Amino acid sequence: MPTATQLDHKAYIPIAHPGDDVKALFKQYGAVRLHDFKFDTASFDKFVSGFNETTLTDYSGGYLGKTGRPKTSTNTFEASNVPPNFYFPPHNDLSYFYEQGRMPGIILFCCLTPALKGGYTPLFNAHHAFKLLPDDIVKRIKGRKLSYVWTIPREGIAGRMKVLPTSWKSFFGTDDPDEVAKLVQDLKFSRHEYLYLGGEGVSKDEPSHLRLYMDGPMVTQHPTSGKDIIFINLGQSPEARKHFAKHYASDEAYQSVIEGSREFLTLDAPYVEWADTHEPIEADVMEAIISAYERSRLDWGWSQPSESIIFDNFLFAHGRDTFEGPRSVITSFGNIGDHKMPGPDCVAFTTTSTAA
Ligand SMILES: [Fe+2]
Question: What residue ranges define each of the domains in the chain, with the CATH number in brackets?
């Protein structure tokens, strides 16, 4: 039974078996689990290339600079490999690039090796979460843009977040400021600035850090249905990490999460700020959003070898539970009809849960 702080995943995510019309179920629910397909990397790759109308195959070369996720086949990538004791908060993959039209509409995951304990990939219904926001919060945030702020040092730091940049070089494949500036422009970041803080081997006459800004909406409308969805990406948010780590991890893991956040946020810059004022997002706004997401959580779990899930990257934010033991999940990103599904009749837009 779902608790008072989560939704009943069975009402929102159907299970398809071989022979079922997976696309029809996806259209109706916005998410579908696949059982008994007996996927390996090659057959999952074949499945996703048939399911998507377009598949994003250049993630590692064009989305997060030069070093992105390792490819596991033509159309699949290694899923996020952040450390096992991190609870990864709700986020829509690549939502930083929404305004540049580079955010995938669909995410597909296949779990090749389930963890011994935990390691789930919870979904969070972003429309349901929006509906839970108090009216006064909605008035303050709807229509406003925020900036995602990344501060990357020139010299590498010994980060544990393997998929995240630890230096200009690991991010862009060069530490030359001019080449970096061109790549920043090519990747359409909203703006960037250099910081001159000095440091080991860096004089104060040359830039020590690069700060990147990517603007996006706090709340937006689903591309097909037009319904409101919370859109802020909480993936690296210290507030969200703190909240979810407290809920799901041991004290030791929680401390590790906080240290990990410091590694990534190498300076005191906020991870997100309002784009218009450059002020931090107010604490009560962050609390309301995190709480709304928490109450819109779908805690389904990987339950059989090679289980897969397909979901709408706009309608559902996703996270990753902490885990023990080995775990292998591969992922693919695609679009169907330029985000034209699922539509207004999608169950995930309309189902009301008694537990909500
Ligand atoms: Fe993700």
Answer: 16-139+217-350 (3.60.130.10)
Give 265-296 as a DSSP string: S-SS--SEEETTT-PBPPHHHHHHHHHHHHTT
Residues 97 and 89: beta-carbon distance below 8 Å: no
User: Model confidence over 17-45: pLDDT tens digits?
Assistant: 999 999 999 999 999 999 999 999 999 99
Is the torsion defined by CA of 103, 109, 112, 117 positive or negative? Answer: positive
103 C-alpha to ligand 1 centroid (Å)? 12
C-alpha 73/C-alpha 51 separation (Å) is 16
Q: Which residues of 88-127 are buried (b: 16+ CB within 10 A; e: fewer)?
A: bbbbbbbbbbbbeeebbbbbbbbbbebbeebbbbbbbbbb
CA–CA separation, 310 and 312 (whole Å): 7
Give the span between the Cα atoms of 224 and 92, in whole angstroms: 16
Expressed in angstroms and rounded, the spacing between residue 312 Cα and the centre of ligand 1 is 12
Rounded Cα distance between 323 and 83, Å, is: 9
- The alpha carbon of 319 and the centre of ligand 1 are apart by a number of angstroms equal to 6
**pLDDT of amino acid 59:** 60
- Taking the centre of ligand 1 as the mean of its atom positions, its distance from the CA of residue 176, in whole angstroms, is 30
Tell me if 29 sits within 8 A of 14, measured CB to CB: yes
Q: Is residue 86 a contact partner of residue 257, using CB atoms and an 8 Å limit? A: yes
CA 92 to centroid of ligand 1, rounded, Å: 7
Structure tokens at 144: 């406003």
CA of 121 to the centre of ligand 1 (A): 9
Amino acid at the residue 89: P
Rounded mean pLDDT, 238-257: 71
Structure confidence by residue, pLDDT tens digits, 179-234: 888 888 887 888 888 888 877 777 888 888 888 888 999 999 999 999 999 999 99
User: What is the Å distance from ligand 1's center to 275 Cα?
Assistant: 23
Q: From start to end of 47-183, where are the E strands? A: 54-55, 77-78, 88-91, 106-113, 117-118, 123-125, 145-153
